[in-house]
Amino acid sequence: MKLPLFFAFATAASVVASGPPSGGPPRPPHHPAKPSTTTVAPVPTPSLPPPTNYGILLFPAFQALDIFGPLDILNTLAMQRTLNLSLISTTYNPVTTKHQMMGINSTFGEDIVPTHTFDNPPNNLEVLIVPGGAGTRAPALDPYIQYIKEVYPSLRYLISVCTGAALLARAGVLNGHRATGNKRAWAFVTSQVNATEADIHWISHARWIQSGNIWTTSGVAAGIDGVFDFVKTVYGEAVALDVANGIEYERQLDWRHDPFADLYNLTDINP
């Protein structure tokens, strides 16, 4: 029996059966990415059940789609299984997407109210998602970076979207890993490294990279494909396909497909 999809911050819901997406406009031409000599490290087969406790790191001027794209995937997944969501920041005050680079007199933006703070963090957090956005260039990010550094050893998985990889690098958790990030902000992302732990292989031609238990993705919309790859890896292809059909999204299945790296003439940065 098919049930309608209601996208909300759900903590539990019933199984949803969805059909294949309907036809749409012709696909744009495929521009193959440059081949990479790097092999994505597999995630070891977990002995535990799939994760249920998710967290989103919130800082001022985060990029909206970096959060809401992955969240709609997880909202839909929460209709099939129990998931818990925590929104984490420095205080309980609303966190805004607004930033100084917006147009003159523009008030366009969204606010999210945190459910937890660094002083009152969620218990048993298993997956943390770190967005990007203009806020990753702010001067007062030390509390966020420290939280990533402290919580990472207890996480099962860590995901960053866009320039969120810069915060992971500054926290030192990308040491010894492959990673990618926003291609328009490539110079910024790859320069934000922990000086004592800079052993990071930055992959330019990658829509996302999975390295061990860490996923990093290219810019903004790439977070959707990266999180779908996470869902496929952790919950299985059938689950990922069902969710994609439910939200009528056509996934990019090739992590190496990245025309934006070609657009900006980018190359890998070796440790």
UniProtKB/TrEMBL annotation:
<feature type="region of interest" description="Disordered">
    <location>
        <begin position="18"/>
        <end position="46"/>
    </location>
</feature>
<dbReference type="InterPro" id="IPR052158">
    <property type="entry name" value="INH-QAR"/>
</dbReference>
<dbReference type="Pfam" id="PF01965">
    <property type="entry name" value="DJ-1_PfpI"/>
</dbReference>
<keyword id="KW-0732">Signal</keyword>
<dbReference type="InterPro" id="IPR002818">
    <property type="entry name" value="DJ-1/PfpI"/>
</dbReference>
<dbReference type="InterPro" id="IPR029062">
    <property type="entry name" value="Class_I_gatase-like"/>
</dbReference>
<protein>
    <recommendedName>
        <fullName>DJ-1/PfpI domain-containing protein</fullName>
    </recommendedName>
</protein>
<feature type="signal peptide">
    <location>
        <begin position="1"/>
        <end position="18"/>
    </location>
</feature>
<feature type="domain" description="DJ-1/PfpI">
    <location>
        <begin position="56"/>
        <end position="227"/>
    </location>
</feature>
